[in-house]
Amino acid sequence: MPDLLPPFDAHRFFVAPWTSDIATYGWMTLMAFLVTAACGLVGNYLILRRMALVGDAISHSVLPGLAVAFLISGKLTLPAMLAGALGAGLLTTFLIEFLHTRSRIKADAAIGITFCSLFALGVVLINVFASKVHLDAECVLYGELSNLALAEYSLGMPAPVLVMGGVAILVTVLIVLFYKELLITSFDALLAGSQGFAPGKMHLALMAALSIVIVAAFESVGAILVIAMLILPGATAQLLSTRLPVCLALSVLHAALSAIGGLHLSLILGCPMAAAAVVAGTLLFGVAWMVSLIQRRAGTIVSDAPAAVS
User: Which residues in 1-39 are b (16+ Cβ under 10 Å) and which e?
Assistant: First the structure.
């Protein structure tokens, strides 16, 4: 019977990635951190709004948006990809709301119908127009961080890292600038509307930001694994704190630990780093869950309270 695990080599698994191989693994780790941090920051608001499955739907529906954008523009450029992702994300949001409000279909069923249908449409488009779209279906589904080694460099770093870094900074800036609006519309849309905060516009803006994050993360982690990165950091953070600013900070910390842990786990197991980073994040969630149980027993955290205003 073949060995399930490769021979353990501490130097190759834990030392070489940060010394002789830093040029390769350093960028991969940074990219994994930027993707998970950006997804985690947006994901906190999705969880507060009980919209985690909407993130799932948009992450799948972006696929046909990318294919259609390429077929219309004739080239796979960042503006075309962003336009396709934004269009698909907003279409997904509209279809979910339309099915839910104009019929007897419940919200969860509307989400399932929308994202399954659009995702299937994307798979069909990629397979039918594979020679034109130049999208690797396996990469789109599962991602491949190792492709960073082949990417073009811009400003001294791989172009995907530069783009993802810009998206992460943009998400952070928007959260800081619109913190109050996002907070009140996430907790009580009716109160937000009475105070003049336009919850509908904030909802569409959040969906647009989510679409941008997803399309920037597509090549590295794929449509399937980005779902976990949207949910795990926020869910882990909200197990440990009831204050939103603390949850946002803990999400970024979770992203850093997931990226580093995913790197070492992928080397040990010989598996894709994106998947290993999600496994590492899941392990962190398990640790946070156990800590939260201890906190509840000690009476240091309110058991069923949502994240509150600090």
Answer: eeeeeeeeeeeebeeebeeeeeeebebbbbbbbbbbbbb
Region for residue 196 given its phi and psi (left: phi exceeds 0; alpha: psi -120 to 50; beta: otherwise): left
Asked if residue 125 lies in contact with residue 67, where contact means CB atoms within 8 angstroms, the answer is yes
**pLDDT tens digits for 233-274?**
999 999 998 899 999 999 999 999 999 999 999 999 888 888
What pLDDT digit, counting tens, does each position of 47-92 carry? 988 888 777 778 778 778 878 887 887 766 767 777 887 788 888 8
Determine contact, residues 202/157, Cβ cutoff 8 Å. Answer: no
How far is the C-alpha of 236 from the C-alpha of 287, rounded, in Å?
9
Q: At how many degrees (to 10) do helices 107-128 and 52-73 cross? A: 30
Q: How far apart are CA 140 and CA 45, in angstroms?
A: 25
Q: Which of 6, 123, 21, 122 is nearest to 65 (CA)?
A: 122
Which strand (E) or helix (H) includes residue 153?
A: strand 153-154
Show the 3-state SS of 20-75.
CCHHHHHHHHHHHHHHHHHHHHHHHHHHHCCCHHHHHHHHHHHHHHHHHHHHHHCC
C-alpha distance from residue 288 to each of 16, 140, 160, 229, 303 (Å): 30, 30, 31, 16, 14
Rg of the chain, C-alpha, whole Å = 20
What's the CA dihedral at 82, 137, 171, 109 to 10 degrees? Answer: 100
Which residues, in sequence order, are CB contacts of 197 under 8 Å at separation 6+? 181, 184, 185
118: nearest Cα among 187, 75, 63 = 63
Q: Are 265 and 43 in contact (CB under 8 A)?
A: no
Q: Please give the model's pTM, rounded to 2 decimal places.
A: 0.83
